[in-house]
Amino acid sequence: MSLSSELLQYLLSGLTMGGIYALVALGFVIIHNVTGIINFAQGEFVMLGAMFMVTLVNAGVPAAGALVIAVILVMIVVGLIEFGAIRTAKKASPLTLVIITIGLSTAIKGIALLIWGTNPYKLEPFTKGGPIHIGGATIIPQSLWVIGTTVLVLALTFFIFEYTYWGKALRACVVNKFAARLMGINPQRMSLLAFVFSAALAALAGIVIAPITYVTYDMGLMLGLKGFVAAVLGGLSSTPGAVIGGLALGIMESMGAGLLSSGYKDGIAFIILLLVLFLKPGGLFGTSGTKRV
Amino acid sequence: MKKRVFLVIALILGLVLAGCGGAQESTEKSSSAETKEPYKIGAIFDISGPGSSLGVPERDTVNMIVEKVNENGGIDGHPIELIMLDNKSNETEAALAAKSLIQKDVLAIIGCSTSGTTLAMLEGIQQAEIPLVSAAASIRIVEPVNERKWVFKTAQSDSLVAERVATYLKSKGLTKIAFASMNNAFGDSGKVEFEKAAAKEGIEILVMEKFEQNDTMMTSQLTNIKKANPQAVLAWAIPPSASSFTTSFDDLGLTVPLIHSHGIGNKTFIELAGDSANGVVFPVGKLLVAEGLPDDDPQKQVLVEYATDFEAKYGPRNTFGGHAWDALQIVLNAVEKAGPDRAKIRDEIENTTDFVGISGVFNMSPEDHNGLSLDSMVMVEISEGSWIPAK
Amino acid sequence: MKDLLKQKRLRHALILLFTLIIFTLPFLITNNYYLSVLVIIGIHTIVVVGLCLLMGYAGQISLGHAAFYGLGAYTSGILTSTYNVSPWLALLAGAVGTGIIAYLIGIPIFRLKEHYLALATLGFGLIIHVILMEEVELTGGPSGLSKGIPYLSIGSLVLNNDFKFYFLVWILALLALILANNVVHSRIGRALRSIHGSEFAAQSLGVDTGRHKLQVFALSAVYASVAGSLYAHYITFISPSPFGLMTSIQFVVMAVVGGLASIWGPIFGVSVITIMAESLKEFMPLLIPQAGGEYEIVVYGIILVVIMIFMPDGLTATLVKAYEGWRYRKERANETP
Asked: Which of A61, B115, B214, C73 has its CA 20 to 30 Å from the CA of residue C140?
């Protein structure tokens, strides 16, 4: 195996994992932008999407229909959560809200364990067919789905935020909550909207990655963590930043595992991450300079 | 005005103590309704958290046995009172759970499901002088045996499994292999033991790779393995990462034999890995191929009975439930012989001979607190989604 | 001025009373399991006191404190079991070493702000965890330290049971608390609070905010390290798993639930979280027979959410508010006749 095809292989695996991280990271960024909350339950939303999908498909619902229903179900669940927990505590500090999301994540995980048990579930790939060979490296078709979905979601997010009323309203909230309220935008409704939108992304992410990762009740922890890292790496406020952060993290892990040491791969990824942060304290695409005084 | 704060503190402390005390009383009350005093047995498993795929079938198995024994009138008329705790796969919680059970005067404890959680509670067990039968694998649980007077275990030691695999590889003439393990106590112990066994059998390990418990893409590791060009690949992991490894193996077009460890002894592995699982060979207790055993195999009857009972109630059989079955049965046998006396129960457990269990035929001794031999394992091959004895 | 004096007396009285309760408890509790729960509470309290100093007074969150806890535990574990170093010396070595490491990594980390700082501490924690997993020769890898860790002893008194260990842990916990109390009410403490209020304003008044933050960070790391050493000698077995991200998050949860504004916060936070988890283990099987840990997790999560919704500033803040409300009503009642 030549070095170039080896590197290509690492790159392709990295892009697949990176796409997964990027999809999760996008959800973090949207909620953080609008509400200032780091949502530690984001990984759990991903898990719920995948679990609903698997359950529906196993019950005989055709895949396309199952996808739509699963995404809507997660949006409803998250909407209720936002309404029940986040809104009731609206006056709390960001740190308290973070702890609330940790509690929510624990509870959701426990409920998932009750409903679905500990066994991992499998979802068939969207398209049949063996791995595709490119220049001595291989990639599975589902990887293309993941990368494709990432691109599509990024485009969609861009469109919504730039060209729709609700998207503009969300952005207004980010820029200045008080002014937004004066303009007749209700920040509470925006928080609900951000959570539900971010839940839809998370559910979609869970569904598209399920054939690669399998589906377990505790898959949210790792995905949430990596998604958070990707989001911060990308600056935490920029959607393209989140995607690039995710892809960068995926490629770093894959290259680290292949070229240096598979045991140290997570460590390597984090050392690079720290170096990036030290050199660019606002993340790769962060808006540094806004200092809280 | 200070009083108020003091009062609040005192109230909280009081409530806590009352709450704890209350809990204990109520368990005592519920038990005194029986005619003969019940025998209390404690169990601690990794029912939630990363070890849950082991802990859940163990919990189910133990519940099943206790129900059955109590329906048949208990042990000499004494019903069994099972107190089961979940350590959440957390070592600190395991240590606390053991102390809680000891305080409830159980006669013996079974568990935990994994090596780390078991090792974390040994100190309390040894000090309280209470018999423990673990369902976990690591040899360190029972060795050095002079420091583990009260501790036994039923799962085959990793050293045994490693030896079984090494002899199999040697017999097939596969002497240049690649090794990949899950990066946790299970995979690490397998790695250490296999290195020893491989050295003994003259097997060369060309490359060693690791993957995390939650990893889903193993292509980077497998690319390195492919580069080394081994005659066979040995993986030491449990699903789902064991399944991911197997599908990635297939995707990269590797065609050499793929050997796994006993960590894939459940249907989950096959379900997840799908067609890629075909042809995978692994060492495991006889439970998985129970029906296919010759009729004169001493374990056959026990195995088939357990498998049928378990599958009727909880779904596909797996070897982890079998470890709990062995642990509880060994304890119950000892209790039946010794009566409610911890020290005598310990002695009886150590005297267990020719006990036909799920993981093998047990012969414990003061030097061997596991009691299993090499022939307790068979090499099994996965073919068309089911298990057959390997050729 | 009179009020301040009163407050100070009240503070001292509270500490005295608390000390009294703590050291009479083990004579009243004969149940070994409750003692061991209290020992664990004590160990975690030491970590969380440090974390509260960092979060409450310096206003910096750390998602990597389990790493310092682990460094202490492993320094003690390795030095005593492999190199036969005296346990007390090992504990000290761990504390000093961890303090230095914290100070050094703190230099670049504290150039970061808010979420980036949180992420950097999280990254540091994960890197330490990976090292504990990978340096098999030194740490025993994922299977944990292979040799037994000896007991601590004072002279000829070997601390080999919960009763004896309880006193050691709580003496150290009280010392940690008193030291923290002094820090809070010292010049550094005032400087720290000014950082929390507005770092910019503090800097312009000539407070060396960077150095103070680093000092508190290092101090809190030393606390965690000492607690880790105690843990190692108490359980006598260590593996990397109790020193991972989940533990770091758990510490932060304990700190926030207890409340960051008071030195009593840690004790409340740790006690409530630990006792809640333990009593759920007791009570759930009584409510729902055959129930496993699943139900415990769900209830635990929901209780956590409810606490944070209704007491967003933590338990101590709520208690203090209730106390002040009561005093206010009483004074009004005194005035009216």
From this structure: B214
Each residue of C30-49: pLDDT tens digit?
A: 888 999 999 999 999 999 99
Best probe of the B interface among C281, C299, C331, by most B CBs < 10 A, is C281
Mean pLDDT of C77-98: 95
Q: What is the pLDDT of residues B90-122, one digit of tens each?
A: 899 999 999 999 989 999 999 999 988 999 999
Query: For residues A9 and A241, is the Cβ–Cβ distance under 8 A?
Result: no
Do A219 and B217 make contact, defined as CB atoms within 8 angstroms?
Answer: no
Interface list for B 312-371 with C (CB within 8 A):
none
Cβ contact (<8 Å) for B240 and A120?
yes
Helix (H) or strand (E) run with residue B282 in it = strand B281-285
Compute the distance between CA of residue C118 and CA of residue C102 in angstroms, rounded to an integer: 14
The strand pairing partners of B383, in sequence order, are B386
Overall pTM surpassing 0.80 (yes/no)? yes
Q: Do A274 and C312 touch (CB under 8 A)?
A: no
Torsional class of B153: left (φ above 0), alpha (ψ -120 to 50), beta (otherwise): beta
Which residues of chain A does C114 touch, with a Cβ-Cβ cutoff of 8 Å? 292
Domains of chain A: 3-279 (1.10.3470)
Position C207 scores a pLDDT of 66
| 3-state DSSP assignment of residue B379 | strand
Report domain extents, chain C: 1-28, 31-256
Cβ contact, residue pair A96, C123, below 8 Å: no
Contact A117 B56 (CB under 8 A): yes
B257-287 residue pLDDT tens: 999 999 898 888 898 898 999 999 999 989 9
In tens, the pLDDT along C275-312 reads 988 888 878 777 776 666 678 888 889 988 998 888 88
Of all residues in chain B, the one with the smallest CA distance to A211 is B272
A267 and C298 within 8 Å at the Cβ level: the answer is no
Contacts with B184 from chain C: Cβ below 8 Å: 142
Residues B302-355 have pLDDT tens digits of 999 999 999 999 988 888 999 999 999 999 999 999 999 999 999 999 999 999
For residue A109, give the nearest of C131, C245, C297 by CB distance.
C297
Q: At C157, which helix (H) or strand (E)?
A: strand C157-158
Residue whose tokens read 């206003």 = C59
Residue of A131 and B24 predicted with greater confidence: A131
CA distances for A292 relative to A39, A242, C64, C196, angstroms: 21, 23, 24, 11
Determine the 3-state secondary structure of B377 from DSSP: strand
A276 interfacial to chain C (CB closer than 8 Å): no
Alpha-helix residue ranges (DSSP H) falling in C110-186: 114-134, 136-139, 162-184
Fold of B158-291+376-389: Rossmann fold (3.40.50)
CB atoms within 10 A of CB B385: 13
pLDDT at C198: 66
Query: Which residues from chain B sit within 8 angstroms of residue A119, using beta carbons?
Result: 53, 268
What value of ipTM does the predicted structure carry?
Answer: 0.86
The torsion of the CA quartet C152, C33, B110, B56, rounded to 10 degrees, works out to: -110
CB contact under 8 A, B140 and C285: no
- Mean per-residue pLDDT, C261-272: 88
Cα–Cα distance for residue pair A293/B75, rounded to 1 Å: 73
pLDDT at residue B30 above 60?
no
CATH architecture type of domain B36-157+311-372: 3-Layer(aba) Sandwich (3.40)
Considering only alpha carbons, which residue of chain C is nearest residue B15?
C275
Q: Give per-residue pLDDT as tens, A21-31.
A: 999 999 999 99
Extract the tokens encoding C40.
Answer: 């664990």
pLDDT tens, position by position, B145-175 = 999 999 999 999 888 999 999 999 999 999 9
Q: Best residue in B27, B63, B91, B106 to probe C by mutation, most C CBs within 10 Å?
A: B91
